[in-house]
Structures
1.
Amino acid sequence: MLINEIPNRKRKGKISAPMLMIAATLLFATMGMCVKFASSEYSTGEIVFYRGIIGAAMMLLLARTRGVALRTDLPSMHFWRSLIGVSALGLWFYAIGELPLSTAVTLNYISPIWMAVLLICSSALLGRRGVDARLACTVLVGFAGVVCMLQPTLKHDQLWAALMGLLSGLLTALAYLQVAALGRVGEPEVRIVFYFSIASISAGALATSLFSEWHAHTARGLGMLLAVGLLATLAQLLMTRAYAIGRILVNGSLQYLSIAWSYFYGVLVFYDSVTELALLGMGLIVIAGIAATRLRQSLAPANHINTAPGP
């Protein structure tokens, strides 16, 4: 039976897409807070490793429940998507541990602006129609927002973490392109997330063994790791459902609520100081991101992808 054929009385209890998005953004911001707490006890590699274990276990359960086979005929596509996505995730977690929470989250949310940059560059290289001036303006506004945010809020020793946060946004944009390509060839979301989780386990174990050390667990640390995995996976599922039943542009706009949630967590829990200029920068990035999403879909409708946060 098609959704439009379901009687209204059976749909009254359904949660709307905007409510799903609001809940997902709150969960993602809460996950970021837990990552920041966990980073005081674990290295970035360890957090990525345990995040992958929890994600893989949940995807195994979901695949079994839905009857989705996890075997794939596209191992190379999954490899590149997972490599880029795990790199973006690790850099984002590192930035969260080193920067004010709202700053790290905002830098990752610059991914729609990076996508606009990629669209402009691909149009120029392929000799397509001239670059849309409105799209170029969103890029400039977005980077102006970055300058406003980073100049007044960063200490000298936080510059490297800020650069890693910016790089995580770029890699996240590339990861979205890979996810879109996998979606176009029919790969289900459960399978994509499962292989991403397996890659997280491998990369996290390798990074921890080579560059840091494995830390002993505490009750608090285990709780934070479990929260990171559960919150991230549940938020992703809610967001995926929201995009399946809701309007893409509305969902894309609501995603930026994560920045607001993170700001409140940063101020109330971590006592982060945020200046007026930093708030202006956040606002510019939100405006530019929403505008870039709208323009990108109108300019390249065949290649649009949803911009869920995080890799």
2.
Amino acid sequence: MDRLNAMRVFVNVVDAGSLSAAADKLDMSRPAVTRYVAELEQWTGARLLHRTTRRLSLTAAGEELLPRCRQVLELAGDMQAAVRNPAEAPRGQLRITAGTSFAQAQLADAIADYVRRYPGVTVDLVLLDRTVNLVDERIDLAIRTAAEIDPQLIARQLTVCRSVVCASPAYLEAHGRPLRVEELAERNCLTHSYFSRSLWHFTRKDDGTPVSVAVGGNVSANDAVSLMQLAQAGAGIAMLPTYLTPAQLQSGALVPLFPEHEPRVIGMHAVYASRKHMPATLRSMLDFLAERFTEPPAWDRPPAG
């Protein structure tokens, strides 16, 4: 049996949703497709697909085998490319996920530069403000800002995410400027639905003492861009990632508060499922992002001049 072709047929059957659709896509007969799947099942010793007249679905064994088949096929493609031309630029597709605000503020420009450098690569950028299952949702790379990463995944720290507590001049004129972080407990704070919704953490810069303040307010959102817009409109005080706010702080649209305290710093990671059989395209993207998002990141450096 040509096991590589059998894996390719199996993956196409799953992606197409039926044996007939896979046969059309692969320009093969349906009996040939059926034979390849049956031979793969015989080799693995397990039934991979539930087949009825109306639908096709994966068995538990098929769920386990599918991502491994994808990895083998990606590795085979990398090997063929390396033999054809060892110096050939990366090519293929990458499916990347990131939070909406970071993608819009920083990652989109980075990916634009990457595909200009490597025009043979296509990127499917999925913006989600939630944690995704990389295998189930066929994600090659996730950019995550988190204190802890699932130990079953591989994480490469790119940089860190700092935050700034700020408000609009109009809000401060109407309500007064708070001088101590503890005063936040009595203010209208605009909170993120998933991150530090009810408790904001700080470190005193002079002696490193940790300080936590219970906060609340009349608006929360699952997107930092929306919180920034609300803060600019004078709705309250927000804790925002600094990758989002350079222009607003420089123009005075937002005023930073509590210079003697630093909000908790969180790692920003590139997360992927496995080091085994890593496609060359994914490796090149990891190296590119690590080179671009250094510590300190560009958005935290003082403006030139």
